[in-house]
Amino acid sequence: MILCCGESLIDMLPRESTGGEPAFAPVPGGAVFNTAIALGRLGAPSGYFGGISTDLFGRMLARALSDSGVDFTLCPRPGRPTTLAFVTLTDGQAQYAFYDENTAGRMLTEADLPALDDRVEALFFGGISLVAEPGADSLAALCAQAGDRPVMIDPNIRPDFITDPASYRARLAAMLDRADIVKVSDEDMAWLGTTPAELIAGGVTLVLETRGAEGVLAVTKAGEALVPARAAKVVDTVGAGDTFNAGLLAGLWRAGLLSRAALREATLEALEPAVALGAAAAAITVSRAGANPPWEDEL
């Protein structure tokens, strides 16, 4: 399986009650959780690892994973609360207020980490789960145990959520040093003070620089290629990047390129279909409300 490691949470999405009052609807989400869901819906062998509470919201998360064919048998199930993210939308762009103290995901420890056996063929990390300790340190330790499995990281940096920038930078730098695939936005690179070329020079095999409506720039040692975005009527952008990550990984898996050796030897031409699948899947997600990735037959 492709094991997606990191946060699951409940997105509290803005709605209006029948009486015309502002309200919020609970919807399963979280960047890494969304990627696992999208992978499962695209027919790839998807796994999820993170702390899933036994509370009401945790049961919602477990049900959503099961419904999309995601293996979550490696997850610890503590009684701590589930992380909540209250979402507001401005011109379709999502902004978040997180409630994450003492939660099932944040309090993940190294004792909770799974043994990486033959079922796990690749790992994905990202999102806010890489920010807050002790969970972030535990995930970094799991990344260090990846062995010869390919690792993808999407830092998806949210500056307002970071309380200890120095610690976060050091943790992320160590994980990026181990990464084979990295997806970054302009905002991510500005905060990190890096470029795709510098990431490649540091040992990353494939960098995906997202450029919004322009598409995605795929960068390797051999050069770069711009894969155009798919036209879509945008309802909101919740889960779009997460769906792209899943499409990319699913495309690499389908093409037999999801190994460190295959990635290093692949040409840009061989990698482009996977990038295009990510773009196509993301275009469907932005066309509907919330993080609702497409199923394989929708593509």
UniProtKB/TrEMBL annotation:
CDD domains recorded: bac_FRK
Family: Belongs to the carbohydrate kinase PfkB family.
Organism: Salipiger mucosus DSM 16094
Keyword Chloroplast: no
GO-annotated molecular function: ATP binding; fructokinase activity
Protein name, entry field: Fructokinase
Pfam families: PfkB
EC assignment: 2.7.1.4
Domain of life: Bacteria
InterPro entries: Carboh/pur_kinase_PfkB_CS, PfkB_Carbo_kinase, PfkB_dom, Ribokinase-like
Keyword Cytoplasm in record: no
Keywords tagged on the record: ATP-binding, Kinase, Nucleotide-binding, Transferase
Gene3D superfamilies: 3.40.1190.20
Domain Carbohydrate kinase PfkB, first and last residues per copy: 3-296
